[in-house]
Amino acid sequence: MRLTKLALQNFRSYTDSTFSFSPQTTVIIGPNTAGKSNLLEAIYLLSTGKSFKAEKDTQMIQFGHSLGRVKGQLEEEGEKDTLEVTISEKTNELTQRSYSKRFLRNGVPKRRVDFAGILPSLLFVPSDLEIIVSSPSQRREFLDTVLEMTDRQYRLSLIAYEKGLRQRNALLDVVKETGMRNEEQFAYWDHLLIEQGSYITQKRAEVIEYMNRQDKSLVAFRVTYDKSVISKERLEQYRGPEIGSGVTLVGPHRDDFAVTIEDKTGEWKNVKHFGSRGQQRLVVLQLKLLQLTYIERELGRRPLLLLDDIFSELDEAHIQDVLAIVSLQQTIVTTTHKEFLQTAAITSMSMIELQNANGD
Predict the structure, then answer these.
(1) Is the whole model's pTM more than 0.85, yes or no?
(2) 37 by DSSP, 3-state: which?
(3) Continuous H helices in the chain
(4) CA-to-CA dists, residue 177 to 165, 170, 187, 253, angstroms
(5) SS3 assignment, position 223
(6) What local confidence, expressed as pLDDT, does residue 345 receive?
């Protein structure tokens, strides 16, 4: 399925706007305050059911309104599909606020776990260039992004695991404060975390194994999975420290991975600590390309590629590396300046020029 149209109502800086997209490549051009990232955020919301930049869903609703809506039209070989996400905020008599988010496919309500992935996409934003040097949570998110896009069971397991983790941490907090431990409650949540966590670990290991097997055109590297295995034995092993800290100390929520590259002496070193800034960026770009091919392998088709102003962060050679793949799937690119793109390539791309500086 390709995205053909996008309608926004009270979404971020857009009050009532409609956009059409090429089945090949669409370039969105405008200054930093024109709303380019907001457009990609709306598309990503249709694809995954969540934002890539909002801390709270209500931040996506335009100021002064209580409801925001994103609606996309998809088409493939004559078949049409409509995806819609609405976010609404309410205030009761006690001035307490609540919000709801609804997902609809052709007007039929769906759960996020069934909605996500109908329009598979891969997003590349400038902050992705920090994956290597940032915290482990960002590297876990890198793995989760590709697996949530391709594996419904992974989405279910991740949701169940995160809920179970919150519940178990709440029990540990009670133990820390009162010294009282309800073994029956712990047994239930331990079992859930072990079952769901084991599946998460297995799938993350498969993605990393895939990345290690593939040829890498930009830079050769190895990925080492630093997994935190969750089992009955390990939970028992960390029982004392967990009570002291009040949180669960083992499980995939503490996973990480390291990327190593070979230096001139033939020794493999962690690119986070020993790689140059240029090498780190090259590794991240290669990781994103591997994400793309993994999704294609699992789904049998390439995902919609979303590139958010990354050309300002790349040198000329790497811009050409990215441009070489934009025509292989539907791609939507944002940029502040046309000169970041090849003149020859621009002639085969559709253009959306944003002029109004109303919030990016």
Answers:
(1) yes
(2) helix
(3) 36-48, 112-115, 136-150, 152-178, 183-213, 232-237, 239-245, 271-274, 277-299, 316-323, 343-346
(4) 18, 11, 20, 24
(5) strand
(6) 58
Residue 256 token pair: 């990480």
CB 176 within 8 A of CB 259: no
Angle at 71 between CA 5 and CA 81, to 5 degrees: 70
Within a 13 Å sphere around the CA of 68, how many CA atoms are in the beta-carbon half? 23
Residue 188 one-letter amino acid = Y
Cβ-contact 119, 1 below 8 angstroms? yes
Residue recorded with tokens 């033939």: 266
Q: Count Cα neighbours of 76 within 13 Å in the Cβ-side half-sphere.
A: 12
pLDDT of 359 reads 46
Q: Supply angle C-alpha 197, 199, 204, rounded to 5.
A: 95
List 109's β-bridge partners, or say none: 104
Classify residue 141 as exposed, middle or buried by CB count within 10 Å of its CB (0-12, 13-18, 19+).
middle
The amino acid at 56: K
- Sheet with 268-270: list strands edge to edge: 222-226, 256-262, 268-270
Q: Of 305, 337, 336, 338, whose CA–CA distance to 322 is shortest?
A: 305
**Which residues of the chain register pLDDT less than 70?**
92-96, 339-348, 356-360
Quote the CATH superfamily of domain 1-120+304-360. P-loop containing nucleotide triphosphate hydrolases (3.40.50.300)
Cα 35 to chain centroid distance, Å, stands at 20
